[in-house]
Amino acid sequence: MKSFEFANPQSESEALELMNENPEQTVVLAGGTDLISLMQADIIRPDRVVDIKNIDSMHDVQEADGGLMVGALNTLEDVLDNSRFADYASVVQAADAVHAIQIQSSGTIAGDLCHLPNCWYYRNGYGLLALDNGTSLPEAGDGRYHAIFGNSGPAKFVSASRFAPALIAWGAKVRIIGPGPDEAEMLPLEYFYTTPRTQRQGTTVLKPGQIVSHIWLPKPGGAVSGNYDVLQLEGLDWPLASAAATLTISGGRVSEARIVMGHVAPTPWVSHDAATALLGKTITEQTAQAAGDAAVSRATPLKDNGYKVQIARAAVKRAILRAAGLCEGGL
Amino acid sequence: MADEPNLEYFWPPREENVLIGKDIQRIDGIAKATGRAKYSSDINTPGTLFAKLLTSNQAAAKIKMLNIEPAKKVPGVRAVYVFPSAYDIATGESKEIRWDGAPIVAVAADRPEIAADGVRAIEIEYEPLPFFVDEEDLAGAEKAQEETGIERVKSLGDNTEGDVESALSEAAVVHKGYYGIHTISHCCLEPHGSHCEWDGNDKLEVHLSTQNVSGTPGQFAGPLGLEQTAVHVQGHYEGGGFGSKFAADEWDLACAEMAKTTGKPVRLMLDRATELKIAGTRPSGFIDVTIAADAEGNIIAWDSHHWGTSGMAGGTVTLGKIPYVFDFANRNRKATGLVCNTGPNRAWRAPPHPQLCALTMTAMDDLAAKLEMDSYDLFMKNLPNVSKGIDDRIDVYAEQMKIAAEMIDWKAKWHPHGKGGGEGAVKRGLGMALHTWGGGAGPCTCLLKVHPDGSVETFLGSQDLGTGTRTVIAIVMAETFGLTLDDVKVNLGSSRYPKSGASGGSITVGGVSSTHRMAAQKALRQIFNLVAAKYDVKADTLAAKGGQILSDGKPVCSWKQAAGLVGPMPLEVQGETTREGLTSATVGGVQMVEVSVNTETGVIRINDFVCVQDCGLIIDELTARSQVLGGMIMGISYALTEERIMDSHTGRYLNADLENYKLPRIGDIGNLRVKMYQPASEYNRGVVGLGEPPVISPGAAISNAVANATGVRVPVLPLTPQRVLDALQKGGAA
Amino acid sequence: MKDRQHAGGNTTVSRRAFLQGSGAAMAATAIATGANEAVAEAEKPSRLRSAGPQKVVLTVNGKQHTLMLEPRVTLLEALRNDLNLTGAKEVGNVSNDGADTVIIDGKPVFASTRLAIEVEGKNITTVEGLSEGKNVDEVITAFVKHDATQCGYCTPGFVVAVRAFLNKNPGANLEQIRKGLGGNICRCGTYAGVTDAAVELCKQGGA
């Protein structure tokens, strides 16, 4: 870890000021569950670290704009403990699937949304695109955990966020502030993620000097939801694939559906095919399976990761069944 | 043994034991659980410098350019050491870098972050060389050898018994299979490393994370040009070893050198990535096998060729001992080592039995399926084919199998492979395997003192890796003298104490327990003679129990009074390993496991896992059970999640971190049960070690359970969701 | 105020940037602390701290310690190397093994994922804070009773994790124990003993 200045703002505006002296070389520290490791490995080498944990407004959870405005610094534990999240079952399930009290009490929602890829080439210093003299390492080397969707460009890593699929399926938005002191915008979370095409591009739309301050969730309005992480280990582990489903069921049939997969593409992957397959259907093992089949019908696995197609299919099926109350989590 | 009066040293009659064989809490448990136990990585003597390494990011290379001057200029950097194995700094000649993670430069600085600055400042350029790392790919290794002229394939021999060809032609059922088990790293939680501090220029004090306290001073002294008397190695607590910590490694010598040049203590522990890459691995094994049986299930032929990585330095799954536990009248076997640019192999718990077991008992299980036989029945039927040398244990295996089957309810739960039925994607299945290990009693000596105030202590240059060595010694002394554990003190972990062998191969408990029983019996006899003279009783009527000396059951004097008779100075006696009457060798065990497999995701969970294990006389049943449980859990790890992943494109160890090097956690082990098999016959054969055996069977047992659940063999361990789904797809089950 | 900001540091930082971001709230802080003069001021946290070594005050097991640290020093490094509190262990480069678990303001945390400077003013409990002489936390007693330790290297972190887990979930069931404690790695395989210890303590209401 190289030396850096440390800033400890107490308000959003202070944070923006402290970030915008040299925004390209400044990083934001929230729970630290990933950033410190990345800095220890010299993958991220900032000149300044801005610790945003002491900004009260970013810890709030309030009703706002016909929904719930959630401070970016709410932890996984907060999500599990705060009854305001109870109606968003898939979000709670995503937090519950992180099997370590230490991560649950430190990790924040926004930190999770911005979590950098776990790609082992990235983590070994080959950059986000994992190129070695122009060769794509996940293609030429070992891509067993890499993308099966959205991988036609140079990026082969998978989005690491545990919450994004559930939040996108709920139609969540993020509140982005900065870089100017009065700049703030609300952006659907679905559009927050980008797939880099060059080594200089990142994984989100955030520009230097910007931070996510809040996440907004619409009122549940009677919709149900489920999240399923396929975890090799019961202990702390990254999903091989995950899926979230948010469904509106009227008269026993699905009238609206949002299906989002995680850990299968460089961004969370919205499956309109799966959603369409469910419309007008009653949720059963068979219709959920059909939606899973639809979800992966256009997958483009690499040479090593064909098995992830089946895992993604199973995740979608189980997320749907879980939303409908037809299956629990677990094996 | 008490009924064999000709023996000089013997264990007490079992029924008289107060401590031996009971559940005794380990005596260093509090020190460990409070964090007070100091490991080598915890030593912080004043002024300690911290060292970090620059390691190779190439699998094979020469160093084109190395400039350490910028590191030396970093304020706070005190020493920069270039590893002679990598580069000759005097001549600028590069040695060959042969694997990812090879150490090149060490930097010692006032603080760890400054040492990291120093490492970052070093300039280095490599000239890459051809490499080969794909240890499963025999044909690829042959091709690479042909193309580059670099040796990649090494014959490890072959041999034949009987006539395999005609046995195969007469067999009722012939099964051909391919099986494998990947390389794993030792991954001790305390990394390899040391804290070195000099007293002047000629005396070196080392805290070393080692399994070999008595054996390592010379390994420092030689290369450093010191007399062995000048090196004192200490290792009071070790954060894991498992066979990888017998030596003073090159990074330990670097630590000592930097401590010398700076005149300050230096601590150098490997970082986790380097620990995984270079501090020891258990080599892989892959096998093509043909196995055949007659219609009754008697196995009549075995024909196999196995291979695996021998790294660059050798040491892989050798020819002997396959098939494992069993041997068959007609048998061909052949072994090949692949020379791979991977970090060195080191002994890993029961080398190479876990691989042999996984390569043998999976094939036997598939043969049973082909015979439409219950796997249990096939193993039982073939017990007469247990290898020579352990065939006196056949009856014990049969007993153990019966007990294990009852514990897991085998007969009620077993179903033909893939025929368990049940709704949904989750299938359950049962599997089993058998294992063997030699163990015995390793070399050990001790100096035992009985002080005139009645306190007792011992000194020995052994070490406690977490196996309970300290506790076992304390129990033996306390039992012999009729004292409590609080009355006896165990001093180990220093090379200045009487020498004791390295702890590896399940020989430590045999060594230290027999040594201390001998020393304590010797001391007690001397004290009995003093008591006899003083109190006018016959020495052969005396016994030491409950802090008293008894004559024919009646109190004569207290232990303290008796000890006071030794005079103003302590009574000192020496002990040494005593095999006759106190220890023996060779143990066996059976493991059975029930798993659930999600056939949609390929995820496996352990439900029930039982082990029936013998190990002769058990000194502490609590820590013995812990050893077995630990073996089973390490077995779950290499069976399901744990493997080294080498990248064929970059030649690098891709998963050298604890997120991608997946170790099971508390939720991954299921319900484990251990039955220590200990009828009188076991007690009477004395102590045998236990560290290795329980880690051998899990790979095969779990693989067999998954085959039983799904009806499809997942041929290669670990059974990751990827391998499970790929096998199911190939087998038409998904 | 400018001096205070750079106390102990060796890197120059623009005062303008500092003031711009702070506004009225910062001015109020300055007035409030102004009376206490330089010594007290030097120990007050500033919004921006230099990259160089500087005073960092940590409250560990109820005691205050003043250290000279760069911001990049992690809490784990400070505990182990500067305070010689070596119960928490350094095991992984990527922090997910739990051997470094400490409790900060009641929450279990991997100490290697916190900068020391970040936890100034917080109450840090390490494993050393769970015993005093022969007086030890019930978790420690239960670990020894159920032989939840072999080599012992993961044990202190596991003890702290179990303590934090029980504080929040005193009556947890087996499933909750298995899920909650998934952040700790043991290589020797003591999980069965840890489970037995935790189950027993939960039956006693978290002791």
Question: What features would you describe in this structure?
Answer:
The complex is a heterotrimer of chains A (331), B (734) and C (207). The longest helix of chain A has 17 residues, at 307-323. Chain A contains twelve helices and 14 strands. Chain A has 331 residues and is of the alpha+beta class. The mean pLDDT of chain A is 97. In chain A, strand 6 (131-132) and strand 7 form a beta hairpin. Chain A folds into two domains: 56-218, Uridine Diphospho-n-acetylenolpyruvylglucosamine Reductase, domain 3 (2-Layer Sandwich); 224-323, Enolase-like, domain 1 (2-Layer Sandwich). Chain B folds into three domains: 14-37 and 441-576, 2-Layer Sandwich (Aldehyde Oxidoreductase, domain 4), CATH 3.30.365; 40-129 and 192-269, Aldehyde oxidase/xanthine dehydrogenase, a/b hammerhead (Aldehyde Oxidoreductase, domain 3, Alpha-Beta Complex), CATH 3.90.1170.50; 281-439 and 584-731, Aldehyde Oxidoreductase, domain 4. In chain B, the strands form eight sheets. A seven-stranded mixed sheet of chain B has the order 3-6-1-14-11-12-13. In chain B, a hairpin with a 5-residue loop joins strand 20 and strand 21. In chain B, helix 9 packs across helix 10 (375-381), helix 9 (353-370) runs parallel beside helix 18 (698-710) and helix 13 (469-481) runs parallel beside helix 14 (508-535). With 207 residues, chain C is α+β, with helices and mostly antiparallel strands. In chain C, helix 5 crosses helix 8 (191-203). The radius of gyration of chain C is 20 Å and the shape is elongated. The model of chain C is unreliable at 1-45 (pLDDT under 50). The interface between B and C is large, with 59 and 60 residues. Strand 1 of chain A pairs antiparallel with strand 1 of chain C.
